[in-house]
């Protein structure tokens, strides 16, 4: 019976250490019931946030007379994972460039930007205040991945990773390249 007593508890004051163990177990069970970052509600909330931030990025591009970005869903999924890794301190966050290359989802040049905010407008305001981020988001890019991870801190916020990508223009190869001699357009061959 004595091995259950802790923190100076005595039967006299009515506090028995066995009760403390029950409270610890109940606290652990309750902690499992607290919504985690992988909770489906948080995922829906993150998707809404990502969509709103994507719309704000394209609004800023339109104001700067730039074409809209196309949302790249595989890249957004990678950004979401990267935002989570950054928020949780996962060392894998440092390998984002390798993951982009290996997944072959950014065929051209790309830039990564980070921001945080409880609302998409807050996150966009931070990006607008950063001259480099503003320049990147209004640059010569065609696709974007936006990934957000809900961080239930006090106060809660979204950790956000954004990747903008240049899509290489298709290269048209001249069928005469590497050949010598005269080449006549097929439509004109009948005249010769």
List the helices and strands and how they pair.
Blueprint (H helix, E strand, L loop, with lengths): L16 H17 L6 H24 L6 E2 L1 H16 L7 H8 L6 E8 L2 H10 L1 H7 L5 E9 L5 E9 L20 H4 L3
Structure description:
The chain is an alpha+beta fold. 45% of the residues lie in helices and 15% in strands. It is built from seven helices and four strands. It has a four-stranded mixed beta sheet with strand order 1-3-4-2. A hairpin with a 5-residue loop joins strand 3 and strand 4. Helix 2 packs across helix 5. It is globular and about 70 Å long. The termini are far apart. The N terminus is likely disordered.
Short structural summary:
Helices cover 45% and strands 15% of the residues. With 192 residues, it is of the alpha+beta class. A hairpin with a 5-residue loop joins strand 3 and strand 4 (157-165).
Structural class designation: alpha+beta
* Average predicted local confidence, pLDDT: 75
Major sheet: size, sense and barrel closure?
4 strands, mixed
- Binned strand content: 5-15%
Alpha carbon gap, first and last residue: 111 Å
Shape: globular
Order of helices and strands: HHEHHEHHEEH
User: Helical region count?
Assistant: 7
Main sheet strand line-up: 1-3-4-2
Gyration radius from CA atoms, angstroms: 28 Å
Query: Could you name the ranges where pLDDT drops below 50 across 5 or more consecutive residues?
Result: 1-39
User: Roughly what percent helix?
Assistant: 40-55%
Oligomer: single chain
Total strand segments: 4
């Amino acid at each position: 019976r004595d091995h259950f007593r802790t923190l100076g508890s005595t039967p006299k004051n009515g506090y028995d250490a066995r009760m403390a163990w029950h409270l610890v177990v109940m606290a652990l069970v309750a902690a499992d019931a607290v919504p985690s970052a992988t909770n489906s509600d948080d995922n829906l909330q993150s998707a809404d946030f990502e969509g709103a931030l994507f719309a704000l990025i394209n609004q800023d591009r339109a104001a700067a007379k730039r074409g809209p970005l196309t949302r790249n869903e595989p890249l957004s999924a990678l950004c979401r994972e990267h935002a989570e890794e950054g928020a949780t301190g996962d060392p894998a966050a440092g390998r984002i460039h390798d993951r982009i290359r290996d997944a072959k989802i950014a065929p051209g040049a790309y830039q990564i930007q980070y921001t945080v905010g409880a609302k998409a407008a807050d996150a966009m305001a931070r990006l607008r205040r950063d001259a480099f981020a503003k320049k990147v988001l209004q640059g010569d890019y065609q696709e974007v991945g936006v990934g957000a991870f809900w961080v239930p801190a006090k106060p809660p916020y979204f950790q956000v990773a954004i990747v903008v990508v240049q899509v290489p223009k298709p290269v048209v190869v001249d069928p005469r390249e590497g050949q010598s001699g005269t080449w006549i357009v097929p439509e004109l061959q009948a005249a010769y």
